[in-house]
Design a protein that fits this description.
The chain has 935 residues and is of the alpha/beta class. Helix content is 23%, strand content 31%. It has 18 helices and 50 strands. Strand 23 and strand 24 form a beta hairpin. The protein has 5 domains: 360 residues, Glycosidases (TIM Barrel), CATH 3.20.20.80; 78 residues, Immunoglobulin-like, CATH 2.60.40; 102 residues, Immunoglobulins (Immunoglobulin-like, Sandwich), CATH 2.60.40; 103 residues, Immunoglobulin-like; 178 residues, 3-Layer(aba) Sandwich (Aminopeptidase), CATH 3.40.630.40.
Length: 935
Amino acid sequence: MKYYSNQRGTVIRTLLASLAILAVTFTVLSASDLFHGEIIKREFPEGIPATPETLRAMTVRTQGNADFPSAPGLPAKEMQAELDEIAAFANTYGYNAIFFEAVPECDAFYQSEILPSSSFWTGKQGGFTFFDPLRYLTNISKTYNIQVYAVVDAFGVAAEGRASASPVDSDLIANGLLDPDAQKVQSLLPAVVKELTGRYDVAGVVFAGVDSKALDSPSYAESLSKILSDSHDSIRQKGAQRLGIVVNSNLLSNERDFVSAPVQAGDLDFVVTSMVSDADTADGVKLLQTELSGWEQLCENASIPYYPLHIASDETIFTHSIDNSFYFERQFGAGGSVISNYGSLHTERRMAAYSLASSFRQQPSESMPDLSYSRTFQVTRPAESITLSDTAYTTWKNYFITGTSNPDLPVLYNGKEIDRPNENGLWGVLVDVEVGTNNYTFSQNGTERTVQIIRKEPAQAPDIISTITKSSVYPANPEAVLAGRGLKLSCTAPAGGKVTARVGGLTTELEPVSSAEDGVAVTYQQTLDLSSLAVAGQVKRIGPVTYSLSYNGMNSSQQSAGEVYVAGAGAEPVARINSSFVPISSNGKDDGEYTTVLKGGCVDTIVENNGGGYYLLSSGGYALKSTVEILEGKETAVSEVSSILLRQVEKGEQLVITGTKRPAFTGEMADGSVRVTLYNLSGFEQMDTSVLNSTLCSSIKSSIAEDGSTVTLTFQLNPGCELTGWNVQFDGENTVIYLKQKPRLQRNTGTPLAGVTILLDPGHGGTDPGAASVPYNAGPWENTLNYADSCALQSRLEALGATVHLTQRNETMTLNERMSMAEQVDADMFISSHHNSLSEQVDSNKVEGIEVYYYNGQSQVFAENIGANLASVTGRKLRFVNWSWYRVTMLTSCPAVLVESGYICSPAEFDRIASDFGMFQYANGVADAVLQYFQ
């Protein structure tokens, strides 16, 4: 082969000269630049790693020193270190193949007898070195079972500085590239393939740069086919080594198709396709599916795989166009993917690296519920004729009728076609509803369905009753009567009757608060003096109230659900919280203005009972009467403190206060500090918090209010210390104040969320199905979609390394049980998944969008990022991110949000959110917000 004989002679002469110099000055030269540093001998596995079922390849570019080496002319030891890092990086982030640019400009990054060494390697083209980057990378990669493919820029050639021994003459260059029609070029490339596959344990050779517009000769396709055919024949280890080519995917759809022929001829073992369409818009998804379908058909017919090529970067990774493409690539049979390039992945932030690593690991959840729904014609809501008779419905003047259909055929209403803004046949029509009987007829392909809605006149007559209304009987909850106060008695009974109440042996007659005709429901009230039953210094339980009615010759009675407790002189009633989480109102209203959320067993003194639904506690807030129990006898809310202890735990620190009761508390987390106030303590003045040795706080200070029993603890955090939240817990009667340190992303791993615990809460479930969707009983309800969202998100978060728990899998579960679970698993984040809906009297064709809710300040940024990400990833409208007082968002121990990811009453939006791809997008958007929070 004459075209490389001069090159071989040059190498031999240089080697002999070098050996002669070595013999004279071995000690000096052993550390000289001739060796480019010390080369350490290592043992490596034999053979070529097997081709994985799913290829995950990372490109390493050498042209222009883009990825390797960091500079031309590096010593061998430094190049070894860089190649070690490349192989380790590929292994860490989930790659099983490396596409190494071995021939960037018709020169070599290996010891070639054909091509001169690359100037990007040795500093000038044709420079000499003993070190062989390709051999070392191939060997070191074997230790991770990673394949190495030699990438050859087929027609690239250095514009200047070519070595004298280069096989390239100026007459072989056309338009700045090697001329593929030149016979010498057609012989050169197969020879390079033969050399690479014969001397190195590469898994194959990949030709790149074959689709430049400069390669526009009429015979180019024929010339390339010959090169590929001869190259394929030149492969030394048939079966173990493969020949591939990198092309733009749109080549299949234009006249310049030079790929189909070699694929069909069996001269290619795989194709790397550079995706033209981005899957980040609906139109982009359709174009991508068209491209993938074409490659699937071509390569499937030839029984070879194709690998889409994607360009990654930290700046664009969270558009998820690559992840979306992965989703459809799996559907269209792609054999894996190739990611360009090492330099864009090996960054300080490494966002693209670990996002893609998680995408490689991510698998569809095995727990994903069935989201299918009917594609046949039917009216789903109302499913049968209905009558709007209750007062709440008789004012309805419209009704949103929904249904399913065959998407390929029109649906008619009153002879006119209905607009169906989706691809799966869902529809909805807002109709007028007049008083009386209304019939609505829909049809498809000759099949008719008629819906009847009867709307009655609103009831005008007053409410006529003959007995005491059970729900009106007071008290409905434990009733503490403070010393010197009377008991409020109240119930609803028919006008014209006689109502009496008996409690603790005392009886009194109630009076109507208004006049009305006999039988009309009115309120009866009275205040009863219970001082005769009170015991000084104690709280006495005297039982429920029995109300008796004498009306129209009939006697009846009702007993109160709540029992009465009376405080004697000097006694203050003590309320004990009866459930795990109880919001305490600042104003006696359910308007979200809460002072704290008390835990089960907390005790506090009742200082006011205004006869309504709340007790005012000594800690300053109002507790719903239904959330407490009243303690009998000489009980006190005071906790006797005997010791304090600060202990380090896995996720932070806990201050343990040994006491005899669970005190009421308030608290807040501001920038750089946490402040917790405990009420009704005794003995804390003997405690010294300044001696506590904290790793999170620069100081822990305590102050005692003038009342001597209110203690405020201020935890001043160290500079740079961040918390996910704080919490007050109880270990028996001991109070535990927990400061939870914020985990950090594990940037140098493929699992950045390792060590992070996340609790996902699928809303509703069990006996509570949530809202109905457009398909109604012919498809999933809200609880199923909520669970599906959580399953998809769990899959993504676990792929990122997080430990993920679900509150329930379609079980009936209270809100407090969901919140308790967050403490049980020590969650660093709580995400509740829901879907929105509207009443049937609203046109749901006109509603869409995402809503996110939070309560505590530490959740706000997280909620805002979820909203922004979901809108960006899905292309759907973000309605708002709002503060609200949903119970599950009131956790202080970690960020807690509630996500309404769309309106399932909207035919257009349901079609998108109820799809597998919709769940996939939801998971990506929310997981991005998790990453943003912890970074």
